[in-house]
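Quick one, probably user error.
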């Protein structure tokens, strides 16, 4: 065991060879434990910061997706150094140094090798023409090739993936999302044969074939064929068949990058290597040479090297612990796997193949539905040994922490597909692993909830987000978040902390319960609602929430009938207040399309009222600096020119961003502009728990960034793919595929249902991404309700949306018609013609105006003397 270093000594040098997830986790673990007395240098051959290889499929379909691990600021620590473009090529064990391909030498006191693995390749004729699936550059190259081939061929690309395991299926699913026809070649008789038995593998095959995948199993390729120009044309199989292909991706697994441990020819290596590669380590991740450790995919433990995130993280933590004087040991590989492939749930864990002597297999299989569930137990059907789930993996999260423990009920109760219902309530033991990615136990979670000392002031953790940040649970793959939330609520209840879903101190109902009550009883006023369900006069939580619910259920003018006092500041002014007390004006520009004549109107208004103008991220024009009393004047000119409110101030639909689409773009396969305009005009004015954004892309190149929106629509050659639950903000989320290749009518029908279901069931100020995460079943539940209508409410949701569409009114046009409504727009109630002289502007550096700073307000001000031009061009 290595002695911990004293801060009074010269810092001991740790060199990390490799910059993948394992290397990052080790550096993070050292940082978390304290770097006093240490200096860590990470050498990575790639040019990127360490990134999440598990999420490569996201970068395949979105080349701008940021996979960077952790906080980049970690590398700014004086005791941390990250060197990119530095590939270690040699270890000098005697001199305790490493040499890089660039010719640089780094001395070490402790060396941690985390070089990972390379993509395995096929020794076939024509193999030089294939792509592999391993790095960011690999997936970017695949994305680019499919885009170029689609343009060149003028049709859907045949994308063949060789390999039917985890990597292969992720690759194939990514090509499908890019608009290609996915084809999978698998040498084994069934898919994912390493994780799934034959029944589960066949069920998975049926499910993905039903989604448009072509699967060829039980036969191997023998040659990659190409034309005279080198363009791939097909894959020749061992049985003589030729499978048409335009691009071929090989994803058959990985091989450890253990070349640093191999001796030169004629020499004897100081390191033991596994029969299939990888440097042999002991149970605390040390190699045979003192001071040299190995973690991640390059490390061979008990004859195995595995490319899974959980064991790599555990190894990294163990080495960091040992270097700080600890005695942690590696418990062995956790081979549990859970993924969602094109909407299909797959999970496998423990002794999935029932290799334990006398093991029992409790199986439910429904080939027609593509559902397969299996639980493996000891021969007395009491102790859980493993399981496999395909098509419905809902029991996985309840069972995974119970691996090796006695089940709280008979095994069949956990087979949800067989009518078992929800998994039986389970009290997880403290030592049960809840988050396998980060090896976080239920006991660690309980300690954090009850105040473990790890958080500032020993304060108990009572929020899910804070709990994730404190313990790391749920921060990697996220599959354990439902169990994490459930454990949090259980522990808070035990502690006497009431887990209340009350809207606020005045209303005991949740927002969803209150929404349904108002809808069923057709309540129309705040007073009615408070008399029936509330106490007191209300607050800044329940007032705007009730105002929002009333606006969601009818399109009456939002400030009439006493509803004006319920609204937030922005809603009361029908404009967004800025930092200096002025307001912004945002007319609707549906789909980002605008005529030159209307552009001229905006220019004239902005010049007349001396407004700062800015094109927004949602493809419209924002005009800043309008005083409250100017808003009606400005909007009169805009409304007379055919504009309407863009509702940038409301919890409602903001924009529907679009690319130029098939009308002009040579890559476009559908008219995205026309669809975007149709959607924006349909859902304009739709009040919801939070703001809503949409995007429509005319092809898989995704120029409208549709998958970053609450609802994203991406054109395919066969219709539209519908994505839901994408958000930006502090916790961004990519939208998930809900349905594919839809015609216009079906697309709009599904969006109607989705929006109205979200409006009825989400919490106040809850974005669609968070709402979907917290739904029991997530996107699968959304699919059941929106696409399959399992709750039988689709017609009701559509009718509610139709009512909104039929009764929509433009709030500013209505305001201008009524003198009483215009009375709201005065800076001073008792002096309606007086202006607020505290609002002043100065010219900015780019020829427009901006709010004056406090220092500038003390000088001679320009804002008070800026002329306002009248319509005839004379100064007013």
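Nope, works fine. Designed sequence:
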């Amino acid at each position: 065991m290595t002695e911990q270093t004293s801060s009074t000594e010269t810092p001991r040098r740790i060199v990390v060879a490799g910059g993948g997830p394992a290397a990052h986790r080790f550096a993070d673990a050292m940082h978390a434990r304290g770097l006093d007395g240490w200096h860590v240098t990470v050498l990575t051959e790639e040019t990127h910061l360490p990134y999440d290889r598990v999420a490569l499929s996201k970068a395949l379909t979105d080349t701008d997706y940021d996979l960077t691990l952790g906080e980049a600021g970690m590398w700014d620590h004086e005791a941390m150094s990250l060197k990119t473009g530095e590939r270690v090529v040699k270890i000098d064990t005697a001199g305790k140094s490493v040499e890089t391909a660039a010719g640089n030498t780094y001395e070490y006191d402790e060396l941690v090798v985390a070089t990972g693995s390379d993509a395995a390749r096929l020794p076939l004729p024509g193999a030089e023409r294939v792509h592999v699936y391993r790095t960011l550059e690999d997936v970017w190259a695949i994305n680019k090739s499919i885009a170029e081939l689609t343009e060149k061929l003028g049709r859907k690309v045949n994308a063949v993936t060789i390999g039917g395991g985890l990597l292969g299926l992720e690759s194939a699913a990514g090509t499908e999302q890019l608009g290609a026809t996915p084809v999978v070649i698998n040498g084994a008789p069934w898919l994912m044969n390493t994780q799934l038995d034959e029944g589960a593998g066949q069920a998975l095959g049926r499910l993905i074939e039903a989604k448009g995948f072509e699967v060829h199993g039980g036969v191997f390729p023998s040659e990659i064929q190409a034309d005279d120009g080198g363009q791939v044309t097909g894959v020749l199989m061992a049985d003589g068949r030729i499978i048409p292909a335009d691009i071929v991706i090989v994803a058959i697994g990985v091989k450890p990058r253990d070349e640093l441990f191999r001796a030169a020819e004629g020499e004897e290596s100081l390191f033991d290597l596994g029969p299939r590669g990888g440097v042999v380590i002991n149970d605390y991740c040390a190699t045979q040479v003192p001071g040299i450790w190995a973690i991640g995919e390059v490390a061979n433990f008990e004859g195995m090297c595995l490319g899974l995130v959980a064991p790599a993280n555990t190894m990294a933590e163990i080495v960091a612990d040992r270097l700080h004087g600890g005695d942690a040991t590696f418990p062995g590989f956790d081979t549990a796997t859970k993924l969602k492939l094109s909407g299909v749930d797959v999970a496998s864990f423990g002794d999935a193949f029932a290799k334990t002597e006398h093991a029992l297999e409790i199986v439910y299989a429904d080939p027609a539905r593509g559902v397969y569930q299996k639980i493996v137990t000891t021969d007395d059907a009491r102790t859980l040994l493993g399981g496999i789930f395909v098509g419905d993996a809902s029991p996985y999260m309840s069972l995974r922490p119970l691996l090796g423990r006695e089940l709280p009920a008979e095994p069949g109760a956990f087979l949800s597909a067989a009518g078992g219902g929800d998994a039986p309530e389970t009290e997880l033991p403290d030592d049960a692993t809840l988050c396998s990615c980060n090896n976080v136990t239920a006991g660690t979670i309980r300690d954090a909830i009850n105040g473990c000392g790890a958080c500032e002031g020993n304060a108990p953790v009572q929020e899910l987000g804070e709990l994730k940040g404190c313990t790391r649970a749920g921060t990697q793959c996220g599959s354990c978040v439902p169990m994490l939330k459930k454990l949090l609520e259980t522990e808070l209840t035990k502690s006497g902390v009431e887990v209340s879903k009350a809207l606020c101190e005045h209303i005991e109902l949740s927002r969803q319960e209150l929404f349904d009550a108002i809808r069923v009883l057709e309540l129309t006023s705040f007073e009615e609602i408070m008399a029936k369900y509330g106490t007191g006069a209300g607050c800044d939580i329940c007032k705007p929430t009730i105002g929002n619910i009333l606006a969601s259920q009818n399109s009456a003018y939002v400030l009439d009938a006493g509803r004006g006092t319920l609204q937030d500041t922005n809603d009361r002014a029908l404009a967004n207040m800025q930092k200096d007390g002025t307001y912004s004006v945002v007319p609707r520009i549906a789909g980002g399309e605008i005529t030159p004549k209307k552009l001229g109107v905006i220019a004239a208004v902005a010049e007349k009222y001396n407004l700062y103008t800015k094109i927004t991220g949602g493809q419209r024009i924002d005009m800043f600096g309008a005083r409250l009393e100017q808003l009606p004047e400005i909007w009169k000119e805009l409304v007379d020119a055919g504009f309407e409110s863009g509702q940038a101030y409301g919890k409602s639909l903001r924009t529907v961003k679009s690319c130029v689409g098939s009308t002009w773009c040579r890559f476009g396969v559908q008219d995205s502009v026309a669809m975007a305009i149709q959607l924006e005009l349909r859902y304009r004015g739709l009040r919801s728990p939070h703001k809503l954004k949409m995007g429509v892309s005319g092809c898989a190149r995704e120029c409208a960034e549709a998958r970053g929106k609450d609802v994203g629509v991406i054109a395919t050659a066969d219709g539209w793919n519908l994505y839901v639950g994408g958000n930006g903000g502090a916790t961004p989320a990519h939208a998930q595929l809900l349905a594919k290749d839809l015609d216009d009518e079906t697309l709009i029908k599904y969006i109607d249902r989705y929006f109205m279901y979200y409006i009825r069931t989400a919490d106040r100020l809850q974005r669609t991404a968070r709402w979907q995460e917290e739904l029991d079943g997530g996107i699968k539940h959304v699919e059941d309700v929106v696409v399959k209508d399992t709750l039988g409410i689709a017609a009701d949701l559509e009718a509610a949306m139709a009512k909104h569409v039929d009764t929509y009114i433009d709030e500013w046009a209505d305001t201008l018609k009524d003198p009483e409504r215009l009375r709201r727009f005065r800076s001073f109630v008792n002096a309606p013609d007086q202006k607020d002289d505290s609002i002043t502007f100065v010219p900015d550096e780019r020829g427009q105006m901006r709010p004056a700073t406090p220092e500038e307000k003390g000088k001679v001000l320009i804002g008070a003397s800026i002329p306002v031009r009248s319509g005839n061009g004379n100064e007013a």
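The chain has a mean pLDDT of 86.
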